[in-house]
Design a protein that fits this description.
Blueprint: E1 2-10, E2 13-18, E3 24-29, H1 35-43, E4 62-69, H2 76-81, E5 89-96, E6 102-106, E7 109-111, H3 113-123, E8 124-127, H4 129-134, H5 138-149, H6 152-199, H7 205-217, H8 219-234, H9 240-251, H10 259-288, H11 293-312, H12 318-369, H13 371-384, E9 391-402, E10 405-414, E11 422-423, H14 424-427, H15 430-447, E12 452-456, H16 464-477, E13 482-486, H17 490-493, E14 498-505, E15 512-517, H18 520-532, H19 538-549
Helix pairs in contact: 5-15, 6-12, 7-11, 8-10, 9-10, 13-15, 15-16, 18-19
Length: about 550
């Protein structure tokens, strides 16, 4: 449950803190005082998006932080699944900077809005007037049925089979599509592959042939220069090596006179040996040079084939062309094995379809089992809330299985005697919608372990004795869940275990919204104002006391 809420720099809120009780918390205030603003700030902890327009001071960041006591709820696995540290007192925080950048944290660990939404939705359920309108949607009604039936595990099991089915279907359809394309281009692929196989290119051969061709085309010049170098280095009468031999003979007798002389001699000897080795290699390379027009033409033809196929397959080099060859081999193999691949994929799809349809049928069976008891419980609650002739029915239209199963749920409702139940959006007034939505929340709350339920003016269109009954039911809900109810009704306010008052402060240059917890005397005064206006009479004060005592 929420044990501490801090809001800074959000809309009309400069700084606000509250510590709601574990049971029924009522928030009241004049219209426009900022009750809905408070709800907007809280919704940031559910991963809702926001922009810089929400900043009270556009030069500072907005911070919304909620501290939740999770000790009574089994949520450790959820945190571990998201690689988050689990703490008994978990902190959710959202920050909106002046430049519009939004950051989310759970126990000081940065998270995405998706993760914030996943965790936040398990800690709080925020009912807004928009959600009341959602009551008419079939998806919401299906969620109601599943919650009442305790179908979460069955929904999870079905979801696994649904994902396996969609994956198998996609694989089969992809193969089927590939099969048609491969058959169309099979001859072309075969021709291209045979051409490359026949060429039998080896990695690195392009560079080898290009180097050899350069040597062949310049063989005469290379041979001439090699022979001149050999003469300069190895001529018996006068050459570099013979000169070095003479220098060596001059230095050898004096090497014993100084370590420096010995070092010079050794360096000279190393140079002589290295030059002798170079001469040997030059002679070896010179002997290999010969002008062979036939061999030159063969190399040119090989390179021409390489260049031709590189251009044909839009490749920059031979490794790229070899990669193309591998791709063609895979295509050819896939074409040859396509019938077997299709048969295997079809078998996998059939098994996945059977498993999915079986789980869909099980899920549908458990849904249908609760249609009558769910309607009965909602009708009983609606009677308590002043709709004695309420009638509800649930129609189920079997549909091809989809992400939610094989059911299309439609809740039919009638508030008046003699009027047949019809789809919700066609028959319910605003007040009836609010009461029905409250009953739905009441029923769903009984079936879940959600820590905190926030109700935003769910009492719209309700007054008098019905409002008292609504407050009584809220009080009962608060025995199992923390409730934060934004209300405009004194009957609801009187039922609160804790009463917060939201008000505007216009004393400064810019309006600020504040919230404060009311003590008993202040609560009586505030409830009296809700009954009798800004200057309540003594009768209004007595009525307020009576409501509080009841």
């Amino acid at each position: 449950m929420l044990i501490h809420l801090t809001i800074k720099n959000y809309a009309l809120i400069k700084h606000l803190e509250m510590e709601p009780s574990a049971r029924l918390n009522v928030i009241t205030g004049e219209t426009g005082a900022g009750k809905s603003i408070l709800l907007g700030a809280i919704s940031l902890l559910l991963g809702n998006r926001a922009d810089t327009k929400v900043l009270w001071d556009e030069s500072a960041k907005c911070v919304t932080e909620g501290v939740f006591d999770l000790s009574a709820y089994s949520l450790k696995n959820l945190f571990e699944a998201e690689n988050l540290d689990y703490e008994k007192n978990t902190v959710l925080r959202r920050e909106i900077s002046p430049n519009g950048k939004s950051r989310a944290f759970i126990n000081d660990t940065p998270v995405t809005l998706e993760v914030m939404k996943k965790i936040g939705s398990r800690l709080m359920d925020v009912h807004s007037q928009h959600e009341t309108l959602e009551l008419g949607s079939r998806q919401f009604q299906l969620r109601l049925v599943d919650t009442f039936a305790g179908n979460q595990k069955r929904r999870d099991d079905y979801d696994i089979t649904w994902k396996a089915f969609t994956s198998a279907r996609k694989e089969y359809e992809t193969l089927l599509n590939d099969s048609g394309l491969l058959k169309q281009e099979a001859d072309f692929v075969k021709f291209q592959l045979e051409e490359l196989v026949k060429a039998d290119f080896q990695d690195g051969e392009q560079e080898k042939w290009e180097s050899q061709l350069k040597i062949m085309e310049h063989a005469e010049d290379i041979k001439t220069r090699f022979n001149r170098a050999i003469a300069l280095m190895g001529n018996p009468e006068f050459s570099v090596l013979s000169s070095l031999a003479e220098v060596r003979s001059q230095l050898n007798p004096i090497t014993s006179y100084s370590p420096a002389y010995q070092q010079l001699f050794q360096r000279l000897e190393s140079a002589r040996i290295e030059l002798s080795d170079i001469l040997s290699e030059i002679e070896s390379e010179e002997s290999k040079i010969e002008f062979d027009p036939k061999r030159t033409e063969e190399v040119k033809e090989r390179l021409s084939l390489i260049y031709q196929l590189l251009q044909k397959h839009h490749c920059q080099n031979l490794p790229e062309l070899l990669t193309v060859k591998e791709g063609l081999e895979r295509k050819a193999e896939k074409t040859n094995n396509m019938d077997a691949l299709l048969a295997d994929a079809k078998q996998v799809l059939e098994k996945a379809t059977q498993a999915m349809e079986k789980k869909a049928a099980e899920l549908s069976l458990f849904r249908q089992k609760v249609f009558v008891p769910l309607c009965s419980q909602l009708i009983a609650l609606l009677k308590q809330l002043g709709i004695p002739e309420a009638r509800l029915a649930i129609e189920n239209e079997p549909v091809p299985p989809g992400p939610s199963g094989g059911d299309s749920i439609e809740v039919l409702f009638s508030a008046n005697k003699g009027i047949a139940p019809r789809p919700l959006a066609q028959v319910a007034s605003g007040g009836e919608f609010s009461r029905l939505m409250f009953c739905v929340k009441y029923v769903m709350a009984e079936k879940t372990s959600l820590p905190t339920l926030i109700l935003d003016e769910i009492d719209t269109g309700v007054s008098g004795q019905i409002a008292i009954q609504l407050g009584t039911l809220m009080k009962a809900m608060a025995q199992r869940h923390q409730i934060i109810a934004i209300s405009h009704l004194p009957q609801i306010a009187a039922k609160g275990d804790t009463h917060y008052f939201v008000y505007k402060d216009n004393s400064a240059s810019k309006t600020i919204t504040h919230i404060r917890k009311l003590e008993e005397a202040e609560r009586i005064a505030e409830i009296a104002k809700m009954i009798g206006g800004a200057k309540p009479s003594s009768l209004a004060l007595e009525n307020a006391k009576e409501l509080m005592q009841s």
